[in-house]
Amino acid sequence: xxxxxxxxxxxxxxxxxxxxxxxxxxxxxxxxxxxxxxxxxxxxxxxxxxxxxxxxxxxxxxxxxxxxxxxxxxxxxxxxxxxxxxxxxxxxxxxxxxxxxxxxxxxxxxxxxxxxxxxxxxxxxxxxxxxxxxxxxxxxxxxxxxxxxxxxxxxxxxxxxxxxxxxxxxxxxxxxxxxxxxxxxxxxxxxxxxxxxxxxxxxxxxxxxxxxxxxxxxxxxxxxxxxxxxxxxxxxxxxxxxxxxxxxxxxxxxxxxxxxxxxxxxxxxxxxxxxxxxxxxxxxxxxxxxxxxxxxxxxxxxxxxxxxxxxxxxxxxxxxx
Length: 321
Description:
Structural class: mainly alpha
Helix content: over 70%
Low-confidence stretches: none
Radius of gyration: 20 Å
Number of helices: 14
Number of strands: 0
Oligomer: single chain
Shape: globular
CATH class: Mainly Alpha
Strand content: under 5%
């Protein structure tokens, strides 16, 4: 029972630890090379399915009548655009090249990435509004859809990135992984009442599904870092600046939120990023090394999430006593 309680209390760090260790074992034990090659495409195929299920289960619990924009959405979006503008100004104004450009691209990925689909899951665990965070997730994704085709061609001038091709490609990803599970959840909620009741009756189902997806994402991240053709100094700098950026985004989000009595919601909205999507963006449109930024960001944001959940659980137990 103590082990089960520990796993429930520390789901996120345990998931990350298992994902990292599993990759390292399969990658560096010669006898497991065949198994590693067999499971690699399977893990790549399973990850989108897990993310789809996380959103589907989350949307099953959403009151769709409460999904509407509110004022903190505007201010969080403004600061997100401001951060993107600052990084773009540094890249273009200083005409950065080589490793300095890769470093700034890595940081840009951690900013321009949309709000994580799992942010609503964490917000709910922290006692915040599921509907308001879910609404911002949609807004954030469509802001990213517009920003990427505008910003990326200015950075990688040699890349063939037209606005419409990038726009439609990213929009397709957003629709498949965000809009479709919402529509499916809406249908289930209003037409399949028994199935809906069964799904919503399982406490923290979306949270544990997210833990499973986090194992795969962490393993992929460790793989990208291990095989990154970059100096240790560059990788360390990306990781440390990613930590600073993560803290700043969570702090600014919470600062904005306290004006609207929505500290948890705004903090998660600005700080918790869809890093898997960011990694895909970086490897598709920029220098592939830029994906190390959101890869490290996964670690930092989930350490912060774990601390927040631990603090919330501690408050609950103190009130209970």
